[in-house]
Amino acid sequence: MSLPLLLASSSTYRKQLLEKLQLPFECSSPEIDESIRLNEDPSDYVERLAIEKAKALSDAFPNHIIIGSDQCAVLEIDNKDTRKQQILGKPNTIENAVKQLSDCSGKKVTFLTGLCCFNSQTGKALSIVEPFTVHFRELTEVQIRRYIQQEMPLDCAGSFKSEGLGIRLFSALEGRDPNSLIGLPLIALVDLLEQMDIDVL
């Protein structure tokens, strides 16, 4: 008998995604410090948080496969002399969302999703970072404000919901699993669960 699954998240988006696999699971929210460290690479950041979220619940759930996930959106900014990465978090306000989408207009944003499966019985942890790139159309402020008013994506990194009206903002999508944009890369999760001897089929 394989160990029961636990999703280390309070996100309704991740819960809905995991339900697609039709595997029984529980949910619990981990309490960790999600601050980015000085000079921490965005990819390292999301992988570290995914691992920390999974391990944070190991004492309360000592005989589970715990799934941790974290995500950030990274905007590439090219200046004449330098290339800089700007991490886009949740906007929380309309004006922050307007600024984020204005910054993204005509550019590409890469979503990095850290994913960890942790066996709290054995201490075995597997983790990956799944990238997914969104290419934005050239957007006017009027278009941006209209979109925000219609969808109110204030709790979404990057200020859009790709599974909803946000698809209108894009000229192209690039990656192996669009579920990554919503917060849980299911293809990669199936890979990790199989390595944890969980039969997902």
What do you see in this structure?
- The chain has 201 residues and is an alpha/beta fold.
- 29% of the residues lie in helices and 28% in strands.
- The protein contains six helices and seven strands; from the N terminus they run βαβαββαββαβαα.
- It has helices spanning 12-19, 42-56, 94-104, 141-151, 179-182, 186-195; strands spanning 5-8, 25-28, 65-78, 83-88, 108-119, 125-136, 170-174.
- Strands 1, 2, 3, 4, 5, 6 and 7 form a seven-stranded mixed β-sheet that branches.
- Helix 1 links the parallel strand 1 and strand 2.
- Helix 3 (94-104) packs across helix 4.
- The protein is elongated and about 50 Å long.
Task: Note the topology.
Blueprint: E1 5-8, H1 12-19, E2 25-28, H2 42-56, E3 65-78, E4 83-88, H3 94-104, E5 108-119, E6 125-136, H4 141-151, E7 170-174, H5 179-182, H6 186-195
